Amino acid sequence: MSILSLKFLGLVAAAAVLLWLVPLRNKRIQILLVNAAFLYLLLPDVLSVVYAVVLALYTWLLGRLLRRAKKAFVLAAVVLPVLGLCYFKYAGFFLGKSIAMPLGLSFYTFKSISYMTDVNRRIVKPAGIISVFDYITFFPAFLAGPIHRADTFFAELDTPMQFEYRDQKNGFILMCFGLFQKFVIADEFSYLVSQFLKTELTGTYTLLGIILYAFHIYVDFDSYSNTAIGAARMMGIHLSRNFHTPYLAADIREFWQRWHISLSSWLRDYIYIPLGGNRKGTFRRYLNNFIVFIVSGLWHGSTWMFVIWGLGHGLLNTVEGLLSQLTGRKRIKFLVPFGIVINFVLVSILWVFFRSASVNEAVTLLGNVFKPSAFALENTEVTFNEFVWMFILLGLVFATDIMRYFTDMIEWLSRRPFILRWLVYLLLIVVAIVFGVYGPGYKPQDFIYVTF
Length: 452
Description:
The protein is mainly α. The chain has two domains: about 5-165, no CATH class; about 165-250 and about 330-450, no CATH class. The protein has 18 helices and no strands. The chain has helices at about 5-20, 30-40, 45-65, 70-95, 105-120, 130-135, 150-155, 165-195, 205-235, 250-260, 260-270, 280-300, 305-325, 335-355, 360-370, 385-405, 410-415, 420-435. It is globular, with a radius of gyration of 23 Å. The chain starts with 5 loop residues before the first helix and ends in a 17-residue tail after the last helix.
């Protein structure tokens, strides 16, 4: 079931109403009911439902045993979820056949591992079966994150649901913003990328395709995250933002502090720091850094292209760190814009490997950038109006990101006068109706990160 489906959106609306119309001492039972309804709606995908329920039970049971366990036992406990993840993601690569993967597996497996580890570290207490089930199967974040943490989630479950107009309003606005990003921007970028990023086209076509793909994958995943976070907020659960203007980062380290924040912080806390982090010398620091980025690449998929993408980020992060050590210089403000441009170029080059089916395809596309050719829209199926609309959408992404860089855009909008707010809402609705990508043939389940 897609997060864009009427079933999902209807469940969000019903859950928001149920939670504050039926007040209980805490939210556990209400969240349990709506999560169960979500799993029921996933049927007839029995594999996705059964695997999620079994892993939730396993996580709860092991959590009861790990409070005072030794590290060896903790490692043994997390091996089983890791093996399950590896089987579904990588067995097909070695067996040469396709293997169906449970929906959301990559995301809730990491939640299971973090919960069991945090119990052993005494960051959280072993929770009851209902709380763990709610955590693993929390439906707004089930399909593609964010990978939220157990301690904050359990704290939210412990509080009774009380109607908060601000949460309902801002959560709804954030959901609508996410849907707008998907229907109007991300899917239009997807179409344009398919037109420009072809191996037979060169020069400006390829350059535009690479730039558009960088924005496509960003807006597509940001739209999912905003929709999920907004839905959770309407249910009284506050999930942290997953993206914070990553293309305004001036270096690779800052990029990963702003891109897919829940994943990058998970890798830091449960892989980088346990490996020793930066506490065991320069060599171990950079070795740990490479391991983290390799894991990040493998988490995204089973092909060598994802490994190359991860290694590329690890290499850039290492070079950046070494240069910083050698120069010892702090960031110079007037050079920051240049750093942002250079960083975007480097990240976009690596996105080419992320997208490509082979090294040869990636190298060909990058080489095509330097093969000049006369640009004419007639060589594509893109109309002049679509070409102009492309620049308008890019400008809209830039404008909203600059606003979000300095403030919480949703909070800022909610404080504007009533008439101004609704003029903005109506404008976005009209734009979505006129320019949105939907209707016959549209596949709303095709979020990029759902496949990971």
